[in-house]
Amino acid sequence: MDAIQLCGMELSRVRSRLRLPVLCLLSGLAVLEFSARGPFRALGSGHDFNDFVSPYVQTHAWLSGHDPYAPSTLRDLWPVSPGPRFLLKESADGTLPAKRGLPSPYTATAFPLLLPIAELPWRIAISVWVLMCVVAVFVVASILIHLAGIRIRSPLVLMIFASVLLLAPVQTAIATSNIVTVVFAMGMVATFCLMRNRAEMAGVLLILAIALKPTVALPFVIYALVSRSLAKAIVPALATGILLLSVTVIPPHGRTFWWKSFLGNNQSMFAPGAIDDFSTANPLHFQLVNLQAALFPILQNRALTQVGAAVVFVVLLAFWFRAVRRDGQIGLLDLAILTSAALLPVYHRFTDAGLLAVPVAWALSEMEGELRRFALGCLLLASPFLIPGATMLQEFSGRSEILQTLSRGRLWNWSILSHESWLILIICVVLLAARSLSRGHKPGQPRREPQPSIAS
Questions:
Q1: In terms of Cα–Cα distance, which of 93, 160, 167, 156 is closest to 384?
Q2: Which of 58, 103, 220, 243: disulfide with 187, CB 3.0–4.6 Å?
Q3: What tens digit of pLDDT does each residue of 312-327 get?
Q4: What residues contact 309, with CB distance under 8 A and at least 6 apart?
Q5: 60: helix, coil or strand?
């Protein structure tokens, strides 16, 4: 018996010694994959057409007093010559917003914030922007490690770091130079400020995040709203918002009334069959992760689908708020619930699913805790997001006989092609079940920082 115990202890020591080198190797591979699928793709041959080029041009248009939402303005100010082949034709016949989502539907409040980068020549600007996005990913990972209360020498640090880099939505967001990564980082920094009793800075950051992309800022705003620190954030947040609106409405080189173009573009983009439509009439609907994309093939009614997604979100939010009110504490698990639930009710593309880094980080930090069953379930449900599953299914459906046969059936649109939306919903349910058994912090692990209490 003593010999067996000694062998077991020796094996345990060997595993402990091997764990760190193995995790370092995996982290190195994660960095390589992230680099190849993220910044290298962003700065590759296709870097003259991405998600940032339209806000870049629109900022120039806003600054010069032109209509930033007019397709003709986008065509005339395009930074690279020649522009995409479709640009001239579709800007002339008025189909550019519906077919391409251009000009981008970001609100004009984003333009003053993007001005420092937009003033740079395009080749330099896109390089600076991609660098900012990469830094934003590392900021997100660092804050998640801090919020999880993990000691710096713990192997979990490398696991969380690698998991953020390996998420396909994060890689795709970098590759497309999407604004979501920067807004995600701003929301995480705002949450960190709340934890550090820097509510004033949190309020300012949240206003800036809302100005850039309100749908991504939503979970962080809700998180802040239930914090007792919110009162300290109101004055600086309001001051920042008023200042930003003033600058937006009165650009330096004259004023243009662009509301009609803005509303018209949005109406075109979300029309049946258009690029942002959640129905099956849109050939690219599989790129959406909001719940409408999964419900519509079942309900076959646009209004009913919208109501259904809203009801699901409200119910999830109500259950979460009830659990939070019960113990008066909020922590990483609560942020994980909000970041996943916020993907369901409003328009979100696959790139926005990078918010799932928060529930993944919580799950990794809880693998040795009392909620490890829920944590394991969360990790299993999030694992399909290591690849762009829906895009791959759609791409290979024409090449594989089995997938081609499946794509003709109802099950294809009901569940297979929309599996990412269903997975996000199930992740929310699992996290809420874990929350009902927790007390706002992670059982079994020390708190590094005091958690803010909710507003009474």
A1: 167
A2: 220
A3: 999 999 999 999 988 8
A4: 290, 291, 292, 295, 344, 345
A5: helix
